[in-house]
Structures are given as structure tokens and as C-alpha cells.
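Quick one:
INPUT:
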């Protein structure tokens, strides 16, 4: 028997097949009713989710704004960093094997919506979408609701990235199908990474560095001079191992270190190292490196390789300093006898047998002090070969072995009496034994009261470089001290001038003497003649010590290879005379015939 039922004027036979079709009709009607409710918001939303295989995460947005994608992701396969940020600048990170799924509502306005993707493609669209057309693999057109009876929407549009290392960017435009004329209302940028980087060591993300021996923090680069280790001390390698996303490697990651060259030993903690290789138990730890017994007191270089999962990922090299074998004092100046404590009068460096400059070495004055010169003082006041509060020759006091860019300076105190002493410095080795520096002259001399001047040559050729030397002495006839300036003010500026002499660097008030001498260079001009160079130092001039400006004679002549006009004229006259003589002889010979 067949039962006919009338529903709003439509006849339907009662059968299993027709009942199914009827229920489907009612469901579709309810769906469209719900869709129409959504369009009343006058909004467009993109809901991005990550999918990998069958895993799908779908979270609906709240209070969506037209053309703005509200991305709410708590995690999911394919997404590594949940999308975040304000409209127009949302960002996230995903695997290249993942994908973004979006629901797009047409809204109730009369504007069409265009969705584009770069660095990826549109791979699928739900069949229930209305007014939604994939025009190209990278562009979707969604017509406005007025054209579809208030039901336009794209359901489950899937965007898949093209390749790792290239961002996938999804953008929405409202108001025109022409992207140039439309207004971009949102932009989602997904950083696409390779699927094999999660939990895998990344050199660019990891930090492996040599740091000061009291530091436990890895940095992007080695600390300056931290690879220089004092005799008997230890070095330290800090590391933080990350994967391609910057996340720490798993705790069970295999990490090891081994000595690849040199004589040193390793340990996972400070002190007591006795291994040539060591296995570590954390992706964030330290390796301690020290000299072995055979290299004690000797300078040696040692390289250590760090391996992750059996592969070498970094090699660090240390310079271990040896024991003190020499002390070198250099660039010694003359102190002002009228001043008390003075610094910066010379440099001192302690060295090992390999010539390495050593920091943190305590020195003392040796022998030679007299009534004019008292004991040596150091620039830091601690009598050590380093800078800072505890050592000299170091940049960072927390790593006292490192040499500074400028050696330690020394000075001494003058008692007001002019004179000098032959002195040295010493380093205590132990048991009453010392290592002594080279002997140097510690002098306390007065200011300049007299001066002389001389040129390096009496005669020059054009283009020569002439060197002027001014020699100054104190009232005792000794070299003027190195603190003495040539001038004091505009009324006492040094004046040096001579014809056809151009100064390479002009003399100034601030110029000082070195061991009682000061030199200047001049470019010699091209005009021949005899001239005088006048050297006038008003600050030093005095009737008390019979000092006035000094005149230095010099001459300029052409070089021996040049020929003057006079020489040319003389040669022409001689040639004419020779020709006339030959003509006369020829005429005489012809007349005899």
C-alpha cells in the first residue's frame, strides 16, 4: 500500500527512500536558516586551523569583524605556534605538511570578498559552500549575500603551503574583485618550516660559546679573551641546544665532548677533570677544560669538539698560558722633577716562554731607587700586570688571564731633585727566587730652558722630505722631561717657517718632547737658492738662559741628472765654436790644392 501525504501542496509517497529525502530537505532548510542568522552580523571571518592527515582543529571566532580573520588556535597537528597578533598582522608557524582551513562568511553587505594566498595553494572547498568560487589555485571569489539570498559562505577552504622556508600569506579584500581597488582587511602570515626540524639540532638556533670561567650562560659569540686561560686555571664552554623552532632539545638527547688536539682534559663540572672525552646528560649544560699534568707551566693550545647525536656540531679552541719567564719594560719616558707621583711613564708586560702576554701577574720594584726617584707605582695601584681592580693586562677582571689591548703603565715619584736611576722590576717565583725585568732609566728632569735645531741635510733637491729636529735641555743640561709642551697659549705658539718648505704637520702648543727631542717634516720646494729655516719657541725663550729663536741654513739645488739653462747655452756656444773651427780647416785644405 502506498500512502500519499500533502505537505504545503507537495505530494510525497510514503516510502523508505522518500522519508530520507524529506529529512534531508528539513535539515537543509535549518542550515540555511542558521546561515541567514550569521549574515545579519555583517561580518566576514577566517577561521584558521592546522591539519595533518586526518587531524583537524576547528575553532569558531567570536565577534568577527568584516574582512578580519579572527584566528583562535590552541594547538593542533601542523601548527607549531598558534596564530596571534592584531588584524592585518597576524602570524604563526606551521609545518610544511600542515594546512590552514578557513570558514568565510559573505556578510549582509553588497560587497564581494576576495581571498588570496601566496606561498601556498587552495586545495579544497566544502560542497556546502554557497556563492564561493575557486577562480585560480591562489584566488577565491565570494559573492555578497544580496546575490545569493543571504546565504553566501565558503566552508572549510583549505590552504596548503608550497615549501618550507617560504611564508604562506592569506589575505582578505572587501569591496572589489580587483585587488588593487579593494581594501585589504586582514593578513595572516604563516612561517612554514620543514617537518624534520622538530626535536632536531639546529646550529642557527643553538648557542655554543666560550665564556668567562665563572659564567654559566651560553651566548651567540665567545666572550672576548675567554679562550685565553691562565696557567693552572680552567676554561668553560657553555651550550644551549635548540631545534629549528628554537625549542630545547629533548632531555635524553645524546651530547658529548672530546679533545681533538692538544694536551688538555675535560669534565662536566669545575675541578677534578681527568678525561679526554665526556658524555653529558643535558641539552643545556657546561664543559670544563683544563691543562693536563704534562703541560703544566707550559703554553699549549687545545681544541674540543662538541657532538650531538654522534655528529660534531662545534669545535672550540683554548690557549692555555704558561708560567712567567720574562718581564719586559718599554716606551720609558722622562718624568717631571717638579711633580710628585706620575703615571704613564712606561709599559710593562709579563710573558711566558711562548711570548704570550700574561694578566694578573703581581710585580714589585727591583733595585736602583735613589734620592731623586722613589719606588715604582702601577697604573691601577696594585702592582700587577693588568687593568682594573685586581689585575693588569685584562679587559674583564672576571677572567684575569686575558691580555688587555694596552699594557700596564708604570710611573714613579720624583722628590724634586733632578737625576735618574737604573731600575728594574721583579716577579717572585717562590722560595726567594725572582725573575727580573730589563734595566731601564727612571729619570726626573726639569722643564726645557734651552733648545737647538738642526736639519737632516744641508742641501736638498726639489721634492725631498726634510726632517727638522728640535733638542731641548733643562737647567742642568739634561734632556727636558717628556711632560713639557712646546707652547702654552696663542701668545706663545711655536713658529717654524722657511722658504720653499711646506710642513707635513704644523707645530702646535700641545706638542711635547720625547727624550728631549721633537721632530717635524717638510716638503722641499722647487726653487733653487740658499735659505734659512727659523725655529721660534716663545714659551722657552728667555734672557735668563740666553735663548732666542734659532736659524737653520739650507739650500735647494737641482738634482745631478737635471740640466740648467746656463748649461744648455754653454753647450751651444761650444758646439758653434767647434763647427767654425772645422769649416776653417776645410777651407784651408781646399786652397792648397
Amino acid at each position: 500500500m502506498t500512502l500519499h501525504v500533502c505537505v504545503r501542496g507537495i505530494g510525497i509517497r510514503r516510502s523508505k527512500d522518500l522519508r530520507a529525502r524529506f529529512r534531508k530537505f528539513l535539515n537543509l532548510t535549518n542550515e540555511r536558516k542558521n546561515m541567514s542568522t550569521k549574515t545579519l552580523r555583517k561580518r566576514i571571518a577566517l577561521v584558521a586551523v592546522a591539519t595533518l592527515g586526518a587531524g583537524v582543529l576547528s575553532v569558531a571566532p567570536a565577534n568577527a569583524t568584516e574582512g578580519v580573520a579572527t584566528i583562535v588556535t590552541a594547538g593542533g597537528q601542523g601548527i607549531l605556534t598558534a596564530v596571534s597578533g592584531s588584524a592585518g598582522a597576524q602570524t604563526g608557524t606551521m609545518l610544511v605538511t600542515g594546512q590552514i582551513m578557513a570558514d568565510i562568511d559573505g556578510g549582509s553587505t553588497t560587497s564581494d570578498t576576495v581571498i588570496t594566498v601566496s606561498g601556498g595553494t587552495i586545495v579544497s572547498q566544502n560542497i556546502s559552500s554557497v556563492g564561493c568560487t575557486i577562480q585560480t589555485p591562489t584566488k577565491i571569489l565570494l559573492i555578497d549575500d544580496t546575490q545569493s539570498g543571504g546565504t553566501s559562505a565558503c566552508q572549510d577552504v583549505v590552504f596548503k603551503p608550497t615549501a618550507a622556508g617560504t611564508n604562506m600569506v592569506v589575505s582578505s579584500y572587501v569591496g572589489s574583485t580587483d585587488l588593487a581597488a579593494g581594501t585589504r582587511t586582514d593578513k595572516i602570515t604563516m612561517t612554514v618550516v620543514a617537518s624534520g626540524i622538530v626535536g632536531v639540532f639546529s646550529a642557527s638556533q643553538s648557542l655554543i660559546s666560550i665564556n668567562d670561567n665563572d659564567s654559566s650562560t651560553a651566548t651567540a659569540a665567545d666572550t672576548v679573551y675567554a679562550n685565553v686561560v691562565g696557567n693552572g686555571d680552567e676554561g668553560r664552554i657553555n651550550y644551549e641546544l635548540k631545534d629549528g623552532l628554537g625549542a630545547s632539545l629533548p632531555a635524553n638527547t645524546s651530547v658529548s665532548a672530546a679533545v681533538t688536539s692538544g694536551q688538555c682534559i675535560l669534565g662536566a663540572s669545575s675541578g677534578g677533570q681527568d678525561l679526554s672525552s665526556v658524555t653529558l646528560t643535558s641539552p643545556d649544560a657546561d664543559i670544563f677544560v683544563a691543562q693536563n699534568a704534562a703541560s703544566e707551566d707550559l703554553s699549549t693550545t687545545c681544541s674540543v669538539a662538541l657532538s650531538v647525536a654522534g655528529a660534531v656540531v662545534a669545535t672550540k679552541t683554548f690557549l692555555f698560558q704558561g708560567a712567567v719567564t720574562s718581564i719586559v719594560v718599554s716606551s720609558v719616558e722622562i718624568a717631571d722633577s717638579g711633580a710628585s707621583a706620575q703615571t704613564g711613564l712606561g709599559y710593562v708586560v709579563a710573558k711566558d716562554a711562548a711570548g704570550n702576554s700574561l694578566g694578573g701577574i703581581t710585580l714589585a720594584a727591583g733595585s736602583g731607587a735613589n734620592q731623586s726617584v722613589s719606588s715604582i707605582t702601577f697604573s691601577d695601584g696594585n702592582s700587577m700586570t693588568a687593568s682594573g681592580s685586581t689585575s693588569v693586562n685584562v679587559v674583564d677582571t672576571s677572567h684575569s688571564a686575558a691580555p688587555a689591548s694596552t699594557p700596564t703603565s708604570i710611573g714613579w715619584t720624583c722628590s724634586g731633585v733632578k737625576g735618574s736611576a737604573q731600575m728594574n722590576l721583579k716577579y717572585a717565583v717562590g722560595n726567594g727566587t725572582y725573575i727580573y725585568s730589563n734595566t731601564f732609566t727612571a729619570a726626573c728632569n726639569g722643564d726645557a730652558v734651552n733648545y737647538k735645531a738642526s736639519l737632516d741635510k744641508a742641501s736638498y733637491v726639489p721634492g725631498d722630505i726634510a726632517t727638522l729636529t728640535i733638542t731641548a735641555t733643562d737647567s742642568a743640561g739634561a734632556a727636558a722631561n717628556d711632560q713639557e709642551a712646546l707652547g702654552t697659549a696663542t701668545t706663545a705658539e711655536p713658529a717654524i717657517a722657511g722658504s720653499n718648505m711646506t710642513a707635513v704637520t704644523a707645530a702646535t702648543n700641545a706638542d711635547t718632547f720625547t727624550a728631549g727631542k721633537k721632530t717635524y717634516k717638510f716638503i722641499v720646494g722647487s726653487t733653487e737658492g740658499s735659505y734659512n729655516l727659523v725655529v721660534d719657541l716663545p714659551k722657552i725663550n728667555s734672557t735668563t738662559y740666553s735663548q732666542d729663536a734659532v736659524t737653520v741654513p739650507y739650500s735647494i739645488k737641482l738634482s745631478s741628472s737635471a740640466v740648467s739653462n746656463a748649461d744648455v747655452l754653454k753647450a751651444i756656444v761650444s758646439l758653434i765654436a767647434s763647427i767654425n773651427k772645422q769649416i776653417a780647416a776645410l777651407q784651408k785644405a781646399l786652397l792648397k790644392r
